[in-house]
Amino acid sequence: MGFGDLKSPAGLQVLNDYLADKSYIEGYVPSQADVAVFEAVSGPPPADLCHALRWYNHIMSYEKEKASLPGVKKALGKYGPADVEDTTGSGATDSKDDDDIDLFGSDDEEESEEAKRLREERLAQYESKKAKKPALVAKSSILLDVKPWDDETDMAKLEECVRSIQADGLVWGSSKLVPVGYGIKKLQIQCVVEDDKVGTDMLEEQITAFEDYVQSMDVAAFNKI
């Protein structure tokens, strides 16, 4: 078992293929198996190895909790595809390149100041990227039916009253008058709302408050965006 040489492109490709249908090296939660393999990787895999890079960034976020992760750390040859042999470190030299710095730090030897500085710098960059990622805003498209009292209601004024309702997270869209019978027409108007800021109950309360023009309000269609 193994991943070949995890410090080489070929080894990273094996790791990427192995993680194509897995979240972790073993099981369904981060463990010492992930720590062992992470420590053997020189740095972030290239962007085209999306599965390996996703796993790498996720495990890096557990840097402070690595000692508490479940399981027992084993040799690299105990993990990975059964038909691949572990050769990581077989071609190792005395090079002090940044790529050979263990981001987690070694359990067997004292971490150098340079390795510590680089690890903390990379972790800070990763946390900064996570913080800058915009949060998804849940929105809905709502079609409202606003019914007047009778055929003498000023529908232009009714629509003006409806559109006068302003709120953070509310955007009014197109509208039209739809016949309902006996010469009466209802206002059908579209709006887009941010779900955590504007609800249908609030819209109904404010629209029906124009009681001189509005008899009732119904939700004709409601779709998540």
From TrEMBL:
It comes from the Eukaryota. Residues 80-116 are annotated as: Disordered. The keyword Protein biosynthesis applies. Residues 139-225 form the Translation elongation factor EF1B beta/delta subunit guanine nucleotide exchange domain. Residues 96-113 have a biased composition (Acidic residues). The keyword Protein biosynthesis applies. Keywords: Elongation factor, Protein biosynthesis. GO terms for molecular function: translation elongation factor activity. Residues 103-130 form the Elongation factor 1 beta central acidic region eukaryote domain. Transmembrane segments: none annotated. EF-1 is composed of 4 subunits: alpha, beta (alpha subunit of the eEF1B subcomplex), delta (beta subunit of the eEF1B subcomplex), and gamma (gamma subunit of the eEF1B subcomplex). Interacts with elongation factor EEF1A1. Catalytic subunit of the guanine nucleotide exchange factor (GEF) (eEF1B subcomplex) of the eukaryotic elongation factor 1 complex (eEF1). Stimulates the exchange of GDP for GTP on elongation factor 1A (eEF1A), probably by displacing GDP from the nucleotide binding pocket in eEF1A. Belongs to the EF-1-beta/EF-1-delta family. This is Elongation factor 1-beta.
